[in-house]
Amino acid sequence: MPLVFVVFPFNTRSPRDRPSVFDWLWAAGTALASLYLIVDADRLNHRWEGASAVLPIEVIIGTGMALLVIEACRRSLSPWMAVTISLSLIYLGTSQWFPGVLHFKGYAYPRMVDFVYLAGDEGMYGFLTGISANILFIYVLFASVMMKAGVGAFVIDVAVRLAGWARGGPAKIAVIGSALFGTISGSTVANVYATGSFTIPLMKKAGYSPRNAAAIEAIAGTGGQIMPPVMGAGVFIMSEVTGISYFEIIKAAAIPAILYYVGLLAIVHFLALRSGMKAVPRAELPSWGPVLRHAYFAVPFVMIVYLLAKGYSPTGAAFYTIIVTFGLSFLDRETWMTPRKCWEALTEAAFNAGTIAVALAGSGMIVGVLTRTGAALAFGGVVVQAAQGVLIIAMILIFVVVSILGTGIPTTAAYVISVTVGAAAMGNLGVSLLAAHLFVFYYAVLSDLTPPDAVTAFAAANIAGADMFATGIEAFRLGIAGFLVPFAFVYHQELLLKGTWTQILSMTGFAAVSAVALASWMIGYGWGRLGLWLRWLCLLAAGMMVVRALILQIVGLLLYVVIMAYAAWTAHRARVASDLAVTPG
After folding, report:
1. How far is C-alpha 526 from the geometric centre of its chain's CA atoms?
2. How many CB atoms lie within 10 A of CB 247?
3. CB-side exposure of 116: number of CA atoms within 13 Å?
């Protein structure tokens, strides 16, 4: 946490090239508060939480540390995160005066400091912060080393070669590039800046409006955080909370992530067809030669999945993959991990890990308040009661809550806070533990696309020179298929690799075509232009393909095929009529 006060200035008027005196003081304050717990660890480890006395010095230090965590979150994350922590602490101190399900007997002030500052499993130094130190840092370092070693550039080159030749190629490069880049990044905004600085100008040149280009990149960049094997800090927390291995989680998340990008690829393809965009001539694309010369950079992707599958711990798998990636960098003089690159990777990882630790320290306090006061269980009961036991209504309510909580709050914090209240409600309605947690996690990620504070859309709009709020609305609209994927895998556990291979493959096929049908409904195009009624029939077909009745799924598939055939036939007739109209004589 001291790094946050050194790196992030107090406000826009603060010096940018150096920390101020107060920054150093606050950094020292956080260091001393942590040092107190280390120096007096023997006594603190043997005290009884809730029973042993809280010393006056601990009340003072704990109060100061809580304020410093809030300020660190405001600087490095967002004001909304700071406000959320503050409101939770205010609620803890005033809960005895709240009516109904929010009423709680309350705590004396020293006891509040006890669980916020001194508790071992909750509060700012609870298990969430422990995860950031024990597991997350090495994955942040893993991402930094991969980028400095040239793996990120290799991923973009692969995307250019795979999709550059197609209609709407630049947009498809953004989609594929962000999907591949997301496998190592685990950060939505990092995905947008890493790929968008290259793809957004290309999309604008190809004919996409600045708003569309920014929205497509925002959707693609956001999806990178749900793409295995590196899915951000939230998945490591999910593994610790649920007891489900990290490998099982990323394995279950693979098909939903692919479906997300299938829907987005269909969106950009139909946009290109509707706008009459031409493909980039293959002669203008870079050759496969330079890409294949760096094909060995695929080894880290395969290696980390292999090690996890073989039972290595997430930390061990990342460590050995970092070593191999470091060695691979020396196969090309341009990608050598020089001492300067190593230093840059370490400092970048340290700064990123600092912001994650701050987010988790703040989230730990919020989650502690929700669980200690019973507010989490109370909310879960309210959701089940409001839904009248109907799962689809409960999921819609949880989606709304997660989207609101995720506004302006980092994905990890949004997931941790939301899953405390959402997963229990879904579990009470018969949803499996993994599906419930993944449902909340997906919408915590997608909250980065949800107005009014759609941070990834705003980042992409900044690159494209587009209106930020309009880009957020457009990203939400074009990303509709991705927003419906979690509903599909809750109802169809086959999408989480539960069931026979026949069931898994057939349901994946239906879901993929459903995502394409949703794209046709949204864009108004398929194998030709679609009128209003045909668009709504596409929506009907998409819905039928993800219901639980096989006969309805088949009918939905056939309906969409008929719609596409009819659209292709009418488009052909229009072309023939146009050709006859311009033929002389």
Report:
1. 29
2. 20
3. 33
Contact 268, 168 (CB under 8 A): yes
CA distance 127 to 216: 37
Say if residues 109 and 59 touch (Cβ distance below 8 Å): yes
Decide: pTM greater than 0.85.
no
Question: If residue 106 lies in a helix (H) or strand (E), which one and from where to where?
Answer: none
Token pair belonging to 24: 């150093």
CA 61 to chain centre: 35
pLDDT given for residue 584 in this prediction: 55
The letter for the amino acid at 521 is W
Quote the tokens at residue 86.
Answer: 């503050």
Nearest to 285 by CA among 181, 154, 163: 163
pLDDT the model gives residue 581: 65
Positive or negative, the CA dihedral 128, 130, 133, 139 is negative
d(CA 305, CA 239): 16
Q: State the Cα–Cα distance between residues 409 and 407, nearest whole angstrom.
A: 5
Pair of tokens at residue 6: 């050194």
Pull the structure tokens for residue 13.
């008027």
**Who contacts 454 (Cβ-Cβ below 8 Å, separation ≥6)?**
218, 448, 471, 472, 475, 476
Instruction: Tokens for 30, please give them.
Output: 């956080």
Smallest CA-to-CA distance from 354 within 69, 43, 25, 33 is with: 69
Name residue 545's amino acid.
Answer: M
- Which residue do the tokens 């497509």 mark? 216
Q: Tell me which residue of 413, 363, 164 sits closest to 277, measured CA to CA.
A: 164
Q: Name the token pair of 303.
A: 């290696």
Query: What is the DSSP code (8-state) at residue 381?
Result: H
Look at the block and give the residue holding tokens 């790929």.
Answer: 195
Look at residue 245 and give its three-state secondary structure.
Answer: coil
pLDDT at position 579: 64
Asked if the bond preceding 229 is cis, omega within 30° of 0, the reply is: yes
**What residues are paired with 529 via a beta bridge?**
525
**Residue 437: what residue type?**
H
Confidence of residue 435 (pLDDT cuts 50, 70, 90): very high
Distance of CA 57 to the CA centre of its chain: 40
Residue that has been written with the tokens 């419906």 in this structure: 484
Give the model confidence (pLDDT) of 166-186 as tens digits. 777 778 887 888 787 777 766
The single residue listed with the structure tokens 């009745």 is 549
Distance, in Å, from the CA atom of 562 to the CA atom of 517, rounded to the nearest integer, reads: 12
